[in-house]
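Usage

Read records sequentially. Each one opens with the input sequence:
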Amino acid sequence: ATKPNSDPPKAKHVRRIIIASLRDAAVTPQFVAQYFLEERPWRTDARITAKCLYVLLILLQYREEIASQAAVTRFTDAVVAYWDGRFPEEKQQIFTQIALRIGAIIHSKIQFHQNHPEVHGNFAVLQKSNFPQIVPTLRQHLSSVLYETNGIKAQVTDSTIFAATVLWQPMVNETVSAYRLLKSIDSSSASE
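and closes with the structure output:
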């Protein structure tokens, strides 16, 4: 799923990681982030970096409970700090931008879910919740995700690199899922 090439991660490999995380409680996003941090050469190839963060974001979106995964931000913050301001060869620049933006989304997502552990990774809420308390931080998260997703949209849609479109998809999914929850719990016109 994180090969050093310009192809998108193979769906079958990503699916295997997701299934492993659903079947085995030890395969958490934190475990996967630690593996990526220590075992994958993300510092030498922006494509690997973007693919690692892509897999992490998808894993977080499939989890019910995210609040305990705060250590994942150590990896994402390290990645963002490392790649921020670096300019690899031209063909890898879009991967750098995608990695930086996915890293920011993961950070925002984990912060949101730490504040609202009753909200699952896919933004489902299965228990009674104090929705008025969720709305302000959900708006903040949605604003952050929308900024990051739209910030790379033009580059992705103009790119001839198909992997960029694939790597962008969970960013769009995060935006849509957060927006749907906001629309369902916020009756004010501010959620428009």
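Summary fields computed downstream for this record:
- The helical segments are 11-23, 29-39, 46-62, 72-83, 90-115, 131-158, 162-185.
- The chain has a mean pLDDT of 88.
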